[in-house]
Amino acid sequence: MSARRLGFFLLTFLIVGLSLLPFLWFVDTSLKSAVQVTAIPPTVVPEGSLAFYRSAVRNYNLLHFLRNSAIVAGLTTLITIGLGTFAGYALARLRFRFKGLFLGALLVVSMFPQISMAGPIWRILRSLGWLNSYQGLIIPYVTLTLPLGVWILASFFKELPAEIEDAARVDGAGHVQTLFRIVVPLAAPGVFTAAILVFIYAWNEFFFALLVMTQQKYQTLPVGIALFQGQYTLPWGEIAAASTVATVPIVLVVFFFQRRIVSGLAAGAVKG
Asked: How far is the C-alpha of 224 from the C-alpha of 101, rounded, in Å?
């Protein structure tokens, strides 16, 4: 192995190691006993105990928070991809004035800092009576993720040959039939990529979830874990176990679909 390749390998190993270190530390802590967690000096090899996982489920409503996150992230993804499909297809095929300006404004909106929108969104949700409700969190998430979804989907739809859609219409297919039977299947990598990114955002989001969900009944995993409280100290073992449970679904999704995600992002970059 040449020195250049060895240096590249070591640099890659260092970057990956530093990125994974916090997660591995939490997994290691979650498998320790209560004595090991507070031991000085700290131990590295855990006992392999699942006591913290059982405690997180029984004493801290971990499954309840997990269900809320699944509901919010799942519905946010379905609504965003549904609306984004129509909007992206319209932007890809229709010609109208100020289209470039509209796309630019759409991208700018997606870059707004969350804190700048917190006050107006909270006031609107309160006036609608939607604080501490699923829709009170799903609607802001859709608002925040829709611009990115539209951008990704529009770039894929735009590069599909229009002749295929013309042929479908000649055969009698309507616009909606053409969209869902011809266009969406051909743009599946882009649709899948957008869905994964939206789901990950909604699953991990913390700020709006903390702002809107003040009742434990509707809190999602990030907020629920952040509010774990012990009688005298923070329950680090249960926090580590719950954080591992919250991270594993995202790791599995990215691990199993990494090729499709990468191909979708790369194709969108080239075609866009």
From this structure: 41
